[in-house]
């Protein structure tokens, strides 16, 4: 039998899942290195923050690895957004905005059929919801927004403000957290805003 036709040994499910994740991140990297870098930072900060929560016996029921995983993939749906829209420096018109906003649902659709990743998928779907109900895609409000998505929403905004983008220069972490504090109770969960500020403070001391 030709070696090329020999059946490959079965790959354990966990290894297959990890390999699939690598493929998805590679795809995102090829689409947008800026989004890929942002996603990696948001994932890392999510893990650190949730571990910090647990170290103070807060929100012990949530999984740091699941939230970090969801944070790494929160923008993976942008692989389906046209490059001209994704990289546009100026404001988006309403049709462009609609396509850009679809990334949350598209990312969710990529993950929703993996039964063990339900909370990862929900974090992706709802990371642009707002505490006051004015976000998308579902307009969820307050505690209706899954915890994982509330965490990602805060870190997403923080990283966006503190990174250089094609349309803005990076702001200082102090200025970013001040703005996030001002949006506690309107855009963000107020308890988590307070905790995030404490986490950043502890991280920098
Ligand atoms: Fe997003």
Characterization of the model:
This protein has 205 residues and is mainly α. The chain has a single domain, classed as Orthogonal Bundle (Hypothetical protein af1432), CATH 1.10.3210. It contains nine helices and no strands. The site of fe (ii) ion has 5 residues, from loops. Fe (ii) ion binds next to loops.
Write a short abstract of this structure.
The chain is mainly alpha-helical and 205 residues long.
The structural domain count equals 1
Output the number of helix runs: 9
Ligand names: fe (ii) ion
Task: Specify the CATH architecture.
Answer: Orthogonal Bundle
Strands, count = 0
Strand content: under 5%
CATH superfamily: Hypothetical protein af1432
Find the structural class using helix and strand composition: mainly alpha
**Can you write the helix and strand succession as a string?**
HHHHHHHHH
Largest sheet: none
For this structure, what is the CATH class? Mainly Alpha
State the separation between the terminal residues, measured CA to CA: 64 Å
Q: How much helix, percentage-wise, in residues?
A: 55-70%
Task: State the CATH topology.
Answer: Hypothetical protein af1432
Please state the overall shape, judged from the principal axes of the Cα atoms.
globular
Structural key phrases:
Hypothetical protein af1432; globular; 9 helices
List the helices and strands and how they pair.
Elements: H1 13-31, H2 33-55, H3 64-72, H4 83-86, H5 94-111, H6 118-126, H7 147-162, H8 173-182, H9 190-203
């Amino acid at each position: 039998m030709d070696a090329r036709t020999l059946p490959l040994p079965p790959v354990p499910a966990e290894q297959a899942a990890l390999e699939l994740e690598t493929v998805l991140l590679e795809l995102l990297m090829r689409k947008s290195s800026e989004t890929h870098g942002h996603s990696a930072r948001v994932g890392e900060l999510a893990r650190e923050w949730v571990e910090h929560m647990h170290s103070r016996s807060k929100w012990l029921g949530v999984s740091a690895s699941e939230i970090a995983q969801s944070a790494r993939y929160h923008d993976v749906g942008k692989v389906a957004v046209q490059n001209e829209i994704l990289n546009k420096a100026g404001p988006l018109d309403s049709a462009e905005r609609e396509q850009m906003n679809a990334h949350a649902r598209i990312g969710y659709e990529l993950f929703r059929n993996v039964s063990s990743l339900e909370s990862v998928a929900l974090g992706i779907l709802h990371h642009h919801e707002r505490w006051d109900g004015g976000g998308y895609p579902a307009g969820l409000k307050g505690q209706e927004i899954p915890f994982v998505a509330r965490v990602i929403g805060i870190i997403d905004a923080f990283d966006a403000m503190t990174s250089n983008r094609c349309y803005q220069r990076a702001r200082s972490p102090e200025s970013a957290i001040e703005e996030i504090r001002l949006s506690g109770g309107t855009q963000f969960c107020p308890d988590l805003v307070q905790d995030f500020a404490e986490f950043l403070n502890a991280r920098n001391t």
